[in-house]
């Protein structure tokens, strides 16, 4: 019976064959312990000299790291293993004998590992991070599909910026200028006017020269947009969605979180509703915490967000930022036009903003005014203005950064480990 490591609990006491790679081994006298992986999981194979031919036993003792093989044996319960099962090996069919594998069980520097990212992905830690990433994506589709959203794909090549031109990658589109997308949001607004509730999930690009542990040049965004939904309703959707994703990971990725050494007690509290603090109160809170230099009207940096998050035991919404530091399309608070109906969701434990959202301007005249203030009167934005001219409605949306969310849920320090092949300021390889 050919199967996978992930499926072996269903075959306890039975003989199976699995295609695997060798991650590590040790042997003593008449027994060899093989650490095996097949992409679905990790498992130990025990080769006893008395249970196999001399040829198989010598092969097991001399295998090199990352050699590939078909391995056959009986599945038995092993309570000492986090996985819970191991294989009593009967036979090994070598596929390829690897040699001089560059990533050994010893410690390696970050740059070395990044240069070998195509191989580093095979490690148990990176495997666990990618499995959690996959579960976040799976849960995202489940949540939005179950709640009546339509997935719409936004273009990657655009004729203009969503929020400003200073952080865009420029290219030529035949005889026109084009840019790699910063966000699918504007297109999702158009889609929401056609389909009601929509979401996009795709790559976005920022050309800012940042080296922080929270930034990537290329990253993935989940961007829902909802017609006939106001700011407060949007906040409820955001907290329900984030709670659903976190609880899905806790339920379906127990072994991966254990592999990563994640303290899951801090994730178990992530259930809606989330606390909220206004920008005004956040500034006051920061001053009380010793940030004397922060002034009203300034945006918050990573230290500010971390300090605010430390005051709460769940993710926290910071609401109603000053209009001058937010995007042109955000709707002003009707009772206080100097702030906008927006919120950033700040994750606990120093992971910073994971969601940003707002109610969008739906008044055609106000949007025209914003166009003039931000010098957006060119033809590239005409279609976006027309959304307000033909049946404008209240609508809201938000964007969740996938890699930051993966970093927070897994507890890894740097977002470079949360995407298969990271693009950083000085890294385009592999």
UniProtKB/TrEMBL annotation:
It is found in: Cytoplasm. GO terms for molecular function: asparagine-tRNA ligase activity; ATP binding; catalytic activity, acting on a protein; nucleic acid binding; transferase activity. It catalyses: tRNA(Asn) + L-asparagine + ATP = L-asparaginyl-tRNA(Asn) + AMP + diphosphate + H(+). Keywords: Aminoacyl-tRNA synthetase, ATP-binding, Cytoplasm, Ligase, Nucleotide-binding, Protein biosynthesis. It is an enzyme of class 6 (ligase). Pfam families: tRNA-synt_2, tRNA_anti-codon. Its EC number is 6.1.1.22. InterPro entries: Aa-tRNA-synt_II, aa-tRNA-synth_II, aa-tRNA-synth_II/BPL/LPL, Asn-tRNA-ligase, Asp/Asn-tRNA-synth_IIb, NA-bd_OB-fold, NA-bd_OB_tRNA. CDD domains: AsnRS_cyto_like_N, AsxRS_core. Residues 130-430 form the Aminoacyl-transfer RNA synthetases class-II family profile domain. One of its GO terms (cellular component) is cytoplasm. One of its GO terms (biological process) is asparaginyl-tRNA aminoacylation. HAMAP family: Asn_tRNA_synth. Belongs to the class-II aminoacyl-tRNA synthetase family. Homodimer. This is Asparagine--tRNA ligase. It comes from Lentibacillus cibarius.
